[in-house]
């Protein structure tokens, strides 16, 4: 790899939308992509499945402070900086049915909200070493307060209170980082991949991972005049 290659980390990249985001970014010249996976073996297999020279697995469980810290340490010792962070790891337990228990809230927030925040926090010193830091939060339109507040809004029939609230929290976390680093020129944005066929929803989604990844990839590659602090999907901006 060249010294000018962008160093990219995608969390939860051993499958689904994360793996596709990693693939699309790694297919571009000048990008070295770390395939984040909470399970080391799944990360190795996913990186190998891409058959690309510029990808490597990185073990990171975003619900574990120790795992986040060792991943950050490894990136620091190998590359000394991070240019693009995609907070993609996520879980959707509501789809299993049953009531929204304390355990479900804690586990879901631990990955979708706190995991994304604490991964970003741990990687700030490395993003500060980048000349053009980009952070993408892979959220969901189910986190939109505006859609939920409208009785005729999008996805009205999906309760999913745990997942919805974890993604709404993620959106606020993203906005906090966008505001914090706006003056420094960082681009921090939120992406809705849309209802996509992956293990998250037992493959009930209708969209493809190829389409779902496009918006995140675009936000990862924004130039100096690109937007920050936005919530969008591939068709355009959506309301908070
Ligand atoms: N699919 C959709 O329709 C849809 C719609 C809107 C938003 N999204 C969002 O898109 C993102 C990707 O979802 P997906 O559909 O690609 O789902 P997926 O195929 O189930 O992939 C989720 C990824 O997150 C990883 N993950 C789960 N817990 C983790 C943890 N504690 N630490 C690190 N990684 C963890 C999973 O790892 P394991 O393989 O080890 O479980 C997996 O790699 C999620 O944030 C999701 O909320 C998806």
TrEMBL record:
<dbReference type="InterPro" id="IPR002347">
    <property type="entry name" value="SDR_fam"/>
</dbReference>
<protein>
    <submittedName>
        <fullName>Uncharacterized protein</fullName>
    </submittedName>
</protein>
<comment type="similarity">
    <text>Belongs to the short-chain dehydrogenases/reductases (SDR) family.</text>
</comment>
<keyword id="KW-0560">Oxidoreductase</keyword>
<dbReference type="GO" id="GO:0016491">
    <property type="term" value="F:oxidoreductase activity"/>
</dbReference>
<dbReference type="InterPro" id="IPR036291">
    <property type="entry name" value="NAD(P)-bd_dom_sf"/>
</dbReference>
<dbReference type="Pfam" id="PF00106">
    <property type="entry name" value="adh_short"/>
</dbReference>
<dbReference type="GO" id="GO:0016020">
    <property type="term" value="C:membrane"/>
</dbReference>
<keyword id="KW-0521">NADP</keyword>
């Amino acid at each position: 790899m060249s010294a000018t290659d962008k160093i990219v980390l995608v969390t939860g990249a051993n499958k689904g939308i994360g793996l596709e985001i990693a693939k699309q970014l790694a297919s571009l010249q000048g990008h070295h992509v770390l395939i984040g996976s909470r399970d080391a073996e799944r990360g190795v297999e996913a990186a190998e499945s891409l058959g690309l020279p510029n990808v490597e697995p990185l073990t990171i469980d975003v619900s574990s402070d120790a795992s986040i810290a060792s991943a950050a340490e490894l990136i620091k010792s190998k590359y000394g900086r991070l240019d693009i962070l995609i907070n993609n790891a996520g879980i959707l337990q509501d789809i299993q049915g049953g009531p929204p228990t304390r355990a479900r809230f804690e586990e879901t927030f631990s990955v979708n909200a706190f995991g994304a925040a604490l991964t970003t926090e741990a990687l700030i010193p490395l993003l500060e070493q980048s000349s053009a830091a980009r952070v993408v939060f892979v959220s969901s339109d189910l986190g939109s307060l505006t859609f939920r507040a409208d009785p005729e809004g999008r996805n009205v029939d999906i309760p999913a209170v745990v997942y919805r609230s974890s993604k709404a929290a993620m959106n606020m976390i993203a906005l906090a980082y966008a505001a914090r680093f706006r003056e420094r020129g960082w681009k921090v944005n939120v992406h809705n991949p849309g209802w996509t066929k992956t293990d998250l929803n037992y493959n009930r989604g209708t969209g493809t991972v190829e389409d779902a990844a496009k918006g995140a990839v675009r936000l990862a590659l924004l130039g100096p005049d690109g937007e920050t602090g936005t919530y969008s999907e591939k068709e355009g901006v959506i309301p908070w």
